[in-house]
Specification:
By secondary structure, this protein is mainly alpha-helical. The chain has nine helices and two strands. The chain has helices at 2-19, 21-43, 56-66, 86-97, 120-132, 136-159, 167-183, 188-191, 196-205, and strands at residues 101-104, 108-111. Helix 1 packs across helix 2, helix 4 (86-97) crosses helix 6 (136-159) and helix 6 (136-159) packs antiparallel against helix 7 (167-183). The radius of gyration is 21 Å and the shape is globular. The two termini are 30 Å apart.
């Protein structure tokens, strides 16, 4: 569903920029200006900010979505309760799926067996969307667990003098790369949990 939403948003955005570039530019500038005002208000409460009863934000959101100027992956669709072990469950689920996948230079991550029909993009986007519905600290814990898994596995391979990078580590690193790509976060977010030289090295062995 998220993939379809992204496709629809891209098509709407392309059509809006092609058919009405002035409207697209106006919406983007207005959105940027309002976000800047809101951010400034949180830093200095004395500065003005749209109130809760102001319909400006709701109306602008409708226009932005109609013009495709939004990212469905960053949207919160439901309110959730606190689940203490939620990051661990998601991490274990991801790790359990990695052995069923393998990297292909032409196709990316594909399933090893036809009996395990796992599609990589829905897996990544599904976990991303699921984590987005919860507090950001859950995502931080989830990334921390993946980083710990990668570091511990690499340390074990180094101690045993294994020349090749394990397939599960490659899959975990590819997941982190795709996660950063889809969320448009800076790479330093994942480099806080995985050393940058591991990212640089794994691309050379693919």
């Amino acid at each position: 569903m998220q993939i379809l939403r992204r496709q629809i948003a891209n098509e709407l955005n392309y059509s809006c920029r092609f058919d009405s570039k002035h409207l697209a530019a106006a919406l983007e500038n207005l959105n940027t200006a309002i976000l800047a005002d809101i951010e400034a208000h949180y830093q200095d409460p004395s500065l003005p900010c749209p109130k809760e009863d102001n319909t400006l934000l709701y109306e602008l959101t409708a226009y932005l979505e109609a013009a495709g100027i939004h990212n469905p992956l960053n949207k919160i669709y439901i309110t959730t309760k606190r689940l203490p072990y939620f990051p661990v469950v998601n991490f274990l689920f991801l790790v359990s799926q990695l052995p069923k996948l393998q990297y292909s230079k032409n196709l990316g991550m594909v399933c090893k067996k036809a009996a395990d029909p796992i599609d990589w993009p829905p897996l990544v986007l599904g976990l991303l969307t699921l984590l987005k519905q919860f507090h950001s600290r859950y995502t931080e814990q989830f990334l921390m667990l993946i980083g710990q898994f990668i570091r511990s596995t690499m340390e074990q391979c180094t101690s045993q003098k294994v020349p090749e990078m394990p397939a599960d580590v490659v899959g975990a690193l590819l997941f982190l790369e795709d996660y950063v790509h889809y969320t448009k976060l800076p790479r330093r977010v994942v480099e806080a949990h995985v050393p940058s030289f591991i990212f640089d090295e794994f691309r050379t062995v693919l």
